[in-house]
Write a structure and sequence with these properties.
The complex is a heterodimer. By secondary structure, chain A is of the alpha/beta class. Chain A has helices at about 45-50, 70-75, 95-105, 110-120, 140-150, 170-180, 195-200, 220-225, 230-245; strands spanning about 5-15, 15-30, 30-35, 60-65, 65, 80, 155-160, 185-190, 205-210, 210-215. Chain A is globular and about 50 Å long. In chain B, helix 3 runs antiparallel to helix 8 (about 155-175). The radius of gyration of chain B is 18 Å and the shape is globular. Chain B is an all-alpha fold. The interface of A and B includes residues 96, 99 and 149 of A.
Chain lengths: ~240, ~250
């Protein structure tokens, strides 16, 4: 099996706190891996390290073979990220935002404009293509944010709580977008919505106090804990770790 | 290079799409010029002669460029947009150049407009005026550098205070634009000439007058301060980027 993401003892220490503690993780090409955990478990710090936003204190990770510590520029070139907060240039139109990100990843101006049109169509943003980002609804801004992550054709996509604060309809629409990407792009998703994990993920990792405490499919984790559903399984895994910690 | 150009284009759009930027950057210096010229026409003494006033107004106008750049960076720093860019292969130099490149032509247009209005009001537009515009460019770089530095180091509210109030006042009072610094003299004059603003204005005035030998002694001060501001901006921005990186 070939892996898009391989973390080897990835650790981040802030003062006395080990935000991420010796993370070992392999995510296969095209897999959608959901990273779960309570607030402060280390999910976002993990994504920040993998995307080059934060240097690990120790350990390393490899994105398609490129080290995030020794070859960050090449490692970054494989990635697209949709951060927790919607990250768009507010005074630019939808198409301008998309084209900007394509160019930032090295695509020439003409091709970027074409790709922006394609991505807008792919994400159902055609009707608002010329609208400024600041005038879009929260759901549409999130879509645009994901489009900006996708336009560079990343092989790895990091979605940090992509549906946070969205209504049910907007959330379901985004799920549909993510489903279409499955298999083509390796996706690392963090979320607090367990139904999202059940609906989308191939495998799940549970983090607590910076440690990765369980990895498996939703069914495997339910079976492992003997819980009646995934929510109980998650609570059992998180609580077990909290008690150990 | 492509990344930097794209980022620079985005910054140009962000600045130009804010009507307040255009109003202050282009409109305010022109209004000042019109107002002071009207005052001059009604007073018996020579206080606001265009040849003397316009180089000062051109330099004063640049203080708004500092405000634009500082506001843009500090606002970007508060949003996830910059985080998205930090996760891309862009490097520190791409950011600094990307923020600087749109501001230089804006400064040039601002200075040209200022002299054009002065010409319409009766100032003789000779080749020396073009030289004065060129001579003002290190001051533009200085203000852009100060803007980048403030935007990198301060939050958007602090930027409003430092660049919007303090810097515009410093460049107004300590540049000798509105009154002859010799009239005040003493410590005030010494402070004024220890800072770059009065030197920038004097270099512009020397260029307009055709007193070429007097330009460079003033301009070196401005170039020195501009280099310090730009280098400090790069260092602080890199530090902030690294701090973001952990």
């Amino acid at each position: 099996m070939e892996y898009s993401i391989q973390a080897e003892g990835l650790t981040k220490v802030y003062g006395a706190k080990r935000a991420v503690d010796e993370l070992h993780l392999d995510i296969a090409n095209g897999e959608l891996f959901a990273l779960l955990g309570v607030n402060g478990a280390g999910k976002t710090t993990t994504i920040k390290m993998l995307t080059g936003l934060t240097q690990p204190t120790s350990g390393d990770a490899f994105l398609l073979g490129d080290s995030i510590t020794k070859d960050a520029i090449h490692a970054k070139a494989h990635n697209g990220i949709s951060p927790q907060e919607t990250a768009v240039a507010r005074n630019l139109s939808v198409l301008e935002n998309l084209a900007l990100m394509a160019q930032v990843y090295g695509v020439d101006r003409k091709t970027a404009a074409l790709k922006a049109q394609e991505t807008a169509e792919q994400l159902g943003l055609t009707e608002v293509a010329k609208a400024k980002a600041k005038t879009l609804s929260g759901g549409m801004q999130r879509r645009l944010s994901i489009g900006m992550a996708l336009i560079s054709n990343p092989k790895i996509l990091f979605l940090d709580e992509p549906t946070l604060g969205l209504d049910v309809i907007a959330r379901r629409e985004l799920w549909s977008v993510v489903r279409k990407l499955k298999g083509r792009v390796t996706i690392l998703l963090t979320t607090h919505y367990l139904e999202e994990v059940e609906a989308l993920s191939d495998r799940v990792g549970v983090m607590a106090k910076g440690k990765l405490t369980a990895v498996g499919t939703v069914a495997e984790l339910i079976e492992k804990t003997g819980a009646k559903d995934f929510e109980d399984a998650f609570i059992a895994l998180a609580t077990e770790t909290e008690e150990i910690a | 290079m492509n990344s930097m150009t794209a980022f620079s284009g985005r910054n140009t759009k962000e600045i130009l799409r804010d009507p307040l930027n255009l109003a202050f950057g282009l409109g305010f210096p022109v209004i000042l010029l019109l107002l002071l010229t009207a005052i001059q026409s009604n007073i018996p003494i020579s206080l606001f002669e265009l040849e003397h006033l316009t180089p000062g107004i051109a330099i004063f106008g640049y203080s708004f460029i500092a405000l634009f750049s500082a506001t843009l960076i500090s606002k970007d720093r508060t949003t996830s947009f910059l985080m998205r860019l930090f996760a891309s292969p862009m490097q520190a130099a791409d950011y600094i150049l990307g923020y600087t490149m749109p501001l230089l032509p804006m400064a040039l247009i601002q200075a040209l407009l200022c002299y054009a209005v002065a010409g319409a009001l009766g100032m003789q537009l000779t080749a020396n005026v073009l030289l004065a515009v060129v001579v003002s460019l290190p001051a533009a770089a200085l203000f852009i550098g100060v803007g980048l530095l403030c935007g990198s180091a301060l939050n958007d509210k602090q930027v409003g205070g430092i660049c919007g109030a303090l810097l515009t006042n410093l460049s107004a009072w300590l540049s000798g634009t509105w009154f002859d610094l010799d009239m005040v003299g003493g410590v005030f004059k010494k402070i004024a000439y220890a800072l770059p603003f009065a030197h920038a204005v004097d270099a512009g005035r020397a260029a307009v007058k055709g007193d070429f030998a007097a330009i460079m002694p003033h301009l070196w001060w401005v170039i020195g301060y501009a280099l310090v501001a730009l280098i400090a901006a790069v260092l602080v921005f890199r530090r902030k980027m690294l701090r973001n990186n952990g």
